[in-house]
Design brief:
Mean pLDDT: 80
Helix content: 25-40%
Number of strands: 25
Distance between the termini: 86 Å
Largest sheet: 9 strands, mixed
Shape: elongated
Low-confidence stretches: 367-407, 418-441, 581-590
C-alpha cells in the first residue's frame, strides 16, 4: 500500500495585510526578473529625466554592481525621499492613463529594486545641492547631503541578496551581460539623440555617440553602430503615414537576413517594444521574399497619438494594445512592400563578400602580395599558375621540371630579341589587350546582329550577358565589374511577380489544354484539390474530380504552359497542405487577408515549377532578355525562398584576387 500523504497545514482563518517590505519584494518579482530588467527601468527613468548622456556600468553580470549615471534634471531632497515610495511618480501630471507620453509611469521601479538589493541614489538639480539616499533590502535610510554633479547617479549592489532563491534562476555572468547589452542596444535605437555608454569587466566600453541632428541620416548612422556596419549599405528607407500613424526607419534587403529575430527593432512613441502584432506584420511583409527559418534586419519607428495605443498591458511594458490593430498591420506591410519594391533589383553586399571569401579560400590565397605589372603580363601569356604569377621566378626556370628528351627533329622556335625601346615587363597589364580585338564573350552572333545596348554593358545596371557556365549561371559584364546570375532563381521571381500582377488585375491568364490531363493521387489529396478548385481557377488552374483518387486538369496558367501538368498539380497540392489554402482553412493570426496570402503561396509554388531549370542552355538574346526583365521587376534580387538571384563582384575586388591591387 502507498504511504498516506502528509497532512497539510490548515488554511489561515483570517485575511491579513502583508508587511510593506514583503509586498515590495513580491512586486519586484514582476518588475525585476534579472539584472537587465533593473537596467532597463533605471535607464528609462534617465531618459524621462531629459538626459543626453547615460552611462551604465555592471559587474558580475549585474549581480554585484549596476551603476547608472545620467545628466538629466536631477532631484531635490523632497523628490528623492518620495521617489523610493511605491506608486510615487512625476510622470502622470493629470492622472490620465490613456495618454501616456513617458517611458515609465507606474512608480514601481525604484522601490522594487531597492526591496531586493542595496540601492543608493545620489542626485542634484541645476540650482540645488547634492543629496543621497539608501535603501537596503527595502529599509529606507534618511536623505543626506552629498557631493554630486547635475543629474542622477544610481548604484545597485548585491542584487537579489534579500531573495536568494532568485539567484538560482539567473544565468552565467556572460549571459546576463549580453542581456544588459541587448537592452542598451534597443534603447539606443529608440533614442539616437542620446549618448549611451556600457562598461563591463570584459574590456573597452561600448559607446553609441549622440546624433545631434534628427532625421533619417542620423538614425541610419545609429543603426549602423547598433546593427553592424553592413546594415546601412543593405537597407532601404521607409516613410509612410496613414490615418494618424506615421512609420519611419530602415529595413534590410530580403537577402540581408539573420537566423534569429533579435535584429528586428520596433519603437512606438519612443518606446522599444517586442509586440507580436508588429512581429507578425514584418513576417507577413517578407513572406514571399525570405525563407521561413530566416529573419529580416530592420528598425522602424511608429509614431501616433498616445490615446491610440495602450502601453499599460504588460509588466515590462514591452507589449502594446492598439485601438486599430488592423490599420497598424496594414501600414507596416504596405510600407515594407513599397520600400522593397522601390529598391528594385538589389542584392545584399554580404553575398558578394561571401563569394570573394570563397574564391580566396579556394585559391589558397590569404592576403595576396602585390603583383608587379611584369609578373602579371608574363604569367598571363605563359599560362603559368596563379602561384607562379604571385611568386615569379626567372624566365629561364619558369617551365623548369623533370628533364624530358626532345622528339627527333625538334627545333626550338627562335626567341624574339628585346630592345631597349620594347616596354617588356614595364607594360601596364590592361595594355596587353589590343584595341582591335573583340572583347571575350559567349555571344557568337555577328557584330552587326548585336544591338548597341547589348554591346555596351554600362548602359544597364546588370550589364550584358557574356557567358553561361554549367548551363545554370549567367555571367554578365557591367561598367565596373561582373554579375553572376542564378537563372532558375531569377526566373522564378519573374514568373511569380507576373502571376501576382495578373491575379491582381482580375485573374491569371489561363491556357486551355487541347487534351485534358488526368492526374492520379490519393483520394484525400484529390478531395483537397477539388475543395480548393474555385480559388485555383482564379489562378488559371482549372480542374475537376475524375473519379476516386484522380482529378481532370482542363487549363493551366499561360505563363506555365508547356510544362509538366502532373508536376504542377503536385506542387499546388504541396502548397495546399503547407498553408491550409482550401476554403475555410486556418488563417494567420492577425492576417487581414488570409485568402490573398494563401493564394500567393500557391502562386509561389507554381512559379518555382514553371521557371527556367538549371541545366537549360540559353541563347545570348535570352540571357540579356532575362537581365532586362530583372532590372524592371521589383524584388528581383531574391527568389521566392529568400535566396539571392545574383551576386555582384566589383572590378577592384577581382583585381585583388589576382594580386593587381
Amino acid at each position: 500500500m502507498s504511504a498516506a500523504p502528509e497532512p497539510r497545514d490548515p488554511p489561515p482563518a483570517h485575511v491579513r495585510r502583508l508587511d510593506p517590505i514583503l509586498v515590495d519584494r513580491i512586486a519586484a518579482g514582476e518588475v525585476v526578473e534579472r539584472p537587465a530588467s533593473a537596467v532597463k527601468e533605471l535607464v528609462e527613468n534617465a531618459i524621462d529625466a531629459g538626459a543626453r548622456s547615460i552611462e551604465v556600468a555592471i559587474e558580475g553580470g549585474g549581480r554585484r554592481l549596476i551603476r547608472v549615471i545620467d545628466d538629466g534634471i536631477g532631484m531635490g531632497a523632497e523628490d528623492l525621499a518620495l521617489a523610493v515610495e511605491r506608486h510615487a511618480t512625476s510622470k502622470l501630471p493629470d492622472g490620465d492613463l490613456t495618454r501616456i507620453g513617458s517611458l515609465g509611469f507606474r512608480g514601481e521601479a525604484l522601490p522594487s529594486i531597492g526591496a531586493v538589493s542595496r540601492l543608493t541614489i545620489t542626485s542634484r538639480t541645476a540650482e540645488g545641492e547634492g543629496v543621497s539616499l539608501t535603501l537596503d533590502s527595502g529599509a529606507k535610510g534618511p536623505v543626506r547631503p552629498a557631493p554630486a554633479t547635475r543629474g542622477t547617479r544610481i548604484e545597485v549592489t548585491e542584487l537579489f541578496a534579500a531573495t536568494p532563491a532568485r539567484l538560482k534562476f539567473l544565468k552565467t555572468d556572460r549571459a546576463e551581460t549580453a542581456a544588459v547589452s541587448e537592452i542598451l542596444r534597443r534603447l539606443a535605437v529608440a533614442q539616437p539623440q542620446i549618448r549611451f555608454t556600457l562598461r563591463t569587466e570584459s574590456g573597452s566600453p561600448t559607446v553609441f555617440p549622440a546624433e545631434s541632428e534628427p532625421g533619417p541620416a542620423a538614425l541610419l548612422r545609429r543603426l549602423g553602430a547598433v546593427l553592424g556596419p553592413d546594415f546601412p549599405g543593405n537597407a532601404v528607407p521607409v516613410d509612410m503615414a496613414r490615418e494618424g500613424f506615421a512609420l519611419q526607419g530602415h529595413v534590410g534587403l530580403p537577402t540581408f537576413h539573420r537566423g534569429a529575430a533579435s535584429h528586428i527593432h520596433f519603437v512606438v512613441n519612443g518606446r522599444p517594444v517586442r509586440d507580436r502584432l508588429l512581429l507578425g506584420a514584418v513576417r507577413g511583409a517578407y513572406a514571399d521574399t525570405m525563407s521561413s527559418d530566416r529573419h529580416p534586419v530592420l528598425a522602424l519607428h511608429l509614431t501616433c497619438d498616445p490615446a491610440l495605443v495602450d502601453v499599460n498591458v504588460h509588466p515590462a511594458k514591452t507589449e502594446l494594445r492598439f485601438r486599430e490593430p488592423g490599420l497598424v498591420r496594414a501600414l507596416i506591410v504596405s510600407a515594407i512592400h513599397e520600400a522593397l519594391r522601390r529598391a528594385g533589383a538589389r542584392s545584399s553586399s554580404t553575398g558578394s563578400q561571401a563569394a570573394l571569401d570563397a574564391l580566396r579560400a579556394g585559391a589558397g590565397m590569404g592576403s595576396a602580395p602585390p603583383m608587379t605589372a611584369g609578373a602579371g603580363r608574363f604569367a598571363a601569356h605563359s599560362g603559368a599558375s596563379a602561384a607562379s604569377a604571385l611568386n615569379p621566378r626567372p624566365a629561364s626556370r619558369l617551365f623548369s621540371g623533370p628533364s624530358v628528351a626532345a622528339p627527333a627533329g625538334y627545333r626550338p622556335a627562335p626567341r624574339p630579341a628585346f630592345t631597349e625601346d620594347d616596354p617588356g615587363f614595364a607594360e601596364t597589364p590592361q595594355a596587353l589587350f589590343s584595341a582591335d580585338l573583340a572583347p571575350p564573350g559567349a555571344d557568337l552572333r555577328p557584330a552587326e546582329a548585336i544591338s548597341e545596348a547589348e554591346a555596351r554593358p554600362e548602359t544597364h545596371p546588370l550589364g550584358a550577358a557574356r557567358a553561361q557556365i554549367h548551363e545554370t549561371y549567367i555571367v554578365a559584364q557591367t561598367r565596373d565589374g561582373i554579375v553572376l546570375v542564378d537563372q532558375h532563381a531569377a526566373h522564378e521571381r519573374l514568373v511569380y511577380e507576373r502571376l501576382k500582377r495578373e491575379r491582381a488585375g482580375g485573374g491569371v491568364l489561363a491556357q486551355g489544354l487541347l487534351i485534358p490531363d488526368v492526374v492520379e493521387m490519393a483520394p484525400e489529396e484529390a478531395d483537397r484539390l477539388v475543395e480548393a478548385a474555385p480559388d485555383l481557377e482564379r489562378l488559371g488552374l482549372t480542374l475537376e474530380a475524375f473519379g476516386p483518387g484522380a482529378v481532370l486538369v482542363r487549363s493551366v496558367p499561360s505563363a506555365l504552359a508547356g510544362g509538366s501538368v502532373k508536376g504542377l498539380v503536385l506542387d499546388v497540392l504541396d502548397a495546399l497542405a503547407a498553408s491550409g489554402v482550401e476554403e475555410g482553412g486556418p488563417a494567420g493570426a492577425g492576417d487581414p487577408d488570409p485568402v490573398s496570402r494563401r493564394l500567393d503561396a500557391i502562386l509561389s509554388r507554381m512559379s518555382c515549377h514553371g521557371s527556367i531549370r538549371a541545366g537549360r542552355r540559353l541563347k545570348p538574346e535570352e540571357m540579356n532578355a532575362l537581365l532586362r526583365e530583372m532590372e524592371a521587376t521589383p524584388l528581383s534580387g531574391s527568389c521566392n525562398h529568400g535566396r539571392p538571384t545574383f551576386v555582384t563582384l566589383g572590378l577592384a575586388d577581382i583585381e585583388r584576387l589576382f594580386g593587381r591591387r
